[in-house]
Specification:
It is a single chain. The protein is α+β, with helices and mostly antiparallel strands. The protein folds into two domains: 9-157, Phosphorylase Kinase, domain 1; 167-357, no CATH class. Helices cover 29% and strands 15% of the residues. The chain has helices at 39-44, 50-54, 71-82, 105-115, 190-201, 227-239, 246-257, 260-272, 284-292, 323-335; strands spanning 9-10, 16-23, 27-34, 57-62, 94-98, 151-156, 167-171, 296-301, 307-313. The chain has a six-stranded mixed beta sheet with strand order 1-5-6-4-3-2. A three-stranded antiparallel beta sheet has the order 7-8-9, with helices on one face. The termini are far apart. Pfam families: Ins_P5_2-kin. It catalyses: 1D-myo-inositol 1,3,4,5,6-pentakisphosphate + ATP = 1D-myo-inositol hexakisphosphate + ADP + H(+). Its EC number is 2.7.1.158. Keywords: ATP-binding, Kinase, Nucleotide-binding, Transferase.
């Protein structure tokens, strides 16, 4: 492969198949298969070894929703604002891919309409192939479709390799560091306060079990005697396995020994000091901070439950247009007393799950 080529990779015109694999609020992930016997493949990208180049990559296409920007623009933001913050092996890497010559978007949108299943539940909001090749859209995603865009992204394939008997788990670390702007008497972190409010108000979130959540502060607990217990509780929650299981023990050890989550926490803290949710406008620093607070962590484990790879993804630079909703949500948590456990009596929720309430 010629890595010096300045032109974006172009998907072959013929002899490829694109299969929907997963869907989120802003993007759809596709698996690409190339016919290795095709001569057309070799002609499309003279500087690339086609099969080798697509190996280990998935195709990500953006949806036509207000929160997404043109792919070429969002990719430049990722290159400039996110990539320099981490080591390459810590990120779901991405690169621009040209698809404009394929005119593939209308057909893929037709497929999404066929997959619409408004009354059903989704198996697609994680990077693992749906059972028996079936794909159903969640109620939350139904009715949204791909944007007309000449570019997509080739991203690191973090799906489990069946031949290796792997497991891949995905979760959102969320706010690993409490904002400096929360009340000093707070006994709930941002995630726990928001969770308590949603449970109390009966807000139904698609594909979310409101009674099951993870206090993110436990992932980066620094207490000398109690931190491993926090890591073990976190691992058990993430894997849906008992604490004494080999998988939970192994993941807890990885959380303890690996620096990735602590690096994410430190970056959140750094950008929180430079930004404010109370400001009239969203600064660049606030957009980076909110990006870091809404990413996903993909962890690959082998058949012996050892962590072999861990990467952060979904790090699309947040739009400043979301500032009003960020500010409104934060003000509600403060004004209604959710941070300090002072919510109204009829909405009262337990606070013991949050690490901020720990009395040691």
């Amino acid at each position: 492969m010629n890595t010096s080529s300045s032109q974006p990779y172009r998907l072959p015109t013929n002899n490829i198949s694109i299969k929907v694999l997963a869907e989120g609020a802003a993007n759809v992930i596709y698996q690409i298969t190339v016919d290795s016997t095709s001569r057309e493949v070799a002609k499309t990208n003279k500087d690339y070894d086609e099969l080798e180049y697509l190996n280990g990559k998935l195709l990500r296409l953006r949806k036509d929703v207000p929160t997404t920007a043109p792919t070429s623009e969002s990719h430049q933001q990722w290159l400039g604002y996110i990539l320099p913050l981490f080591e390459p092996e810590q990120l779901v890497t991405q690169e621009l891919v040209y698809i404009g010559h394929l005119n593939v978007i209308p057909g893929l949108n037709t497929d999404l309409r066929r997959f619409d299943n408004p009354g059903g539940t989704s198996t697609s909001n994680h990077l693992a192939p749906p059972p028996k090749g079936k794909f159903y859209r969640s109620r939350a995603q139904s009715g949204t479709f791909l944007a007309k865009d000449d570019f997509g992204l080739l991203v690191t394939d973090m799906t489990p390799r069946k031949s290796a008997q792997e497991t891949v788990v995905e979760f959102k670390p969320k706010w690993l560091s409490p904002s400096r702007e929360i009340p000093p008497q707070a006994i709930r972190c941002r995630t726990c306060a928001l969770h308590a409010r949603r449970v109390a108000l009966g807000e139904e979130r698609k594909n979310t079990d409101l009674q099951s959540y993870l206090c993110p502060l436990r992932l980066v607990d620094d207490h000398p005697q109690l931190k491993f217990e926090s890591y073990l509780a976190s691992a058990s929650h993430i894997l849906h396995k008992p604490r004494e299981s080999p998988a939970a023990q192994s993941l807890a050890t990885w959380i303890h020994q690996n620096a990735l989550l602590k690096r994410l926490r430190d970056l959140q803290t750094e950008y929180d000091l430079k930004a404010s949710l109370q400001s009239e406008k969203a600064s660049h620093e606030l957009c980076v901070a909110m990006t870091l607070r809404d990413c996903s962590l993909y962890i690959r484990m082998d058949q012996h439950h050892h962590v072999t790879e861990a990467r952060l993804g979904d790090l699309d630079y947040k739009s400043a247009h979301k500032h009003s909703s960020w500010k409104k949500k934060e003000q509600e948590l403060i004004d209604e007393g959710w941070y300090c456990g002072r919510e109204s009596k009829e909405l009262k929720q337990p606070v013991g799950q949050c690490l901020l309430s720990r009395k040691v």
